[in-house]
Amino acid sequence: MQPFLVSHYDFDHPLAGDPTRETDLGASGTSITLINGGAAMRVDESAYPGSGRALRTKQVNPSVTGNDDWKAGIYAASGVPSLRRFNAASGITLMGWIKPDGTNPNLNSMTPAPDDLYNAIGLFGLLAGNSEGHGVRALLELINVSGTMKLVALGRRVDTGNSVTLAADAEWPTLLPNGRWTHLAATFDFDAGTMALYRNGELLPATYTTAGDQWALAGDAARPHRTSATDPAGIKIGGSFPQNTTERNAFNGLQDDLMFFDKALSAADIKAQLARFQGRAQ
């Protein structure tokens, strides 16, 4: 899988001379910023034995409209050139370790209502080429689906087109228990028009929330079908707007070994990568 690994963040490798940034261990060299919390966001917590440090993201002042939530990422309105392998991509895979702790979902700090919760909890993903810091090409998150919070993969093939959401059938606290590390993966096959969700290496039963050709594959004669030929506007981790202009969908918890591949990996690939993590500890 190494040839398809574009970006990888294990939060054990501060950028030389700037501990507020994290080095990309993948091929792209896309360093990200640890926003608002800086170096304090790296915590001595192992997702698996031998994994080193993890990233903490959190909501800081839920009752105050501001830009102080701890989150991570990179943003450029014109696109991030080092992420060009996700330009006109026929497939993407997101993979990483997640540990919720504290409250989730969180209060909407952008409204005055004292009981207004965000309708989503941001985990991590790639922004679309035309993104304002929220819209995505590929994302793992928790979001309200018909009144119930669900673990989902959300993908968008064409920047100006519709997104597609694949929601895990099981209740999200069962899939992501508070205070426990869980390995998640999502695959996006833009050519076949399919997505998949995995938990601890196993395929999750899941349901698409909308029917029909939402990715407009029927109108695209070229094969393989690909995403828009634009560089992603960046990466977001633990919330939206990595340019830190506003707050949305804060995640209280830890993340580790976040990996971004430019291929829709197979179930066997995902199981093999999880085994590699586990085997490293032996």
Q: Can I get a quick summary?
A:
With 282 residues, the protein is mainly β. The protein has two helices and 18 strands. The strands form two sheets. Strands 2-3-4-7-17-9-10-11-12-16 form a ten-stranded antiparallel beta sheet, with no helix packed on it.
Overview of the molecule:
With 282 residues, the protein is mostly beta strands. The protein has one domain: Jelly Rolls (Sandwich), CATH 2.60.120.200. 6% of the residues lie in helices and 36% in strands. The protein is built from two helices and 18 strands. The chain has helices spanning 172-175, 267-280; strands spanning 5-9, 14-15, 18-22, 32-35, 42-43, 54-57, 71-75, 91-100, 120-127, 136-145, 148-156, 163-168, 182-189, 194-199, 202-203, 206-208, 234-237, 253-261. The strands form two sheets. The chain has a ten-stranded antiparallel sheet with strand order 2-3-4-7-17-9-10-11-12-16, with no helix packed on it. Strands 1, 5, 6, 8, 13, 14, 15 and 18 form an eight-stranded antiparallel sheet that branches. The model has no long low-confidence stretch (mean pLDDT 96).
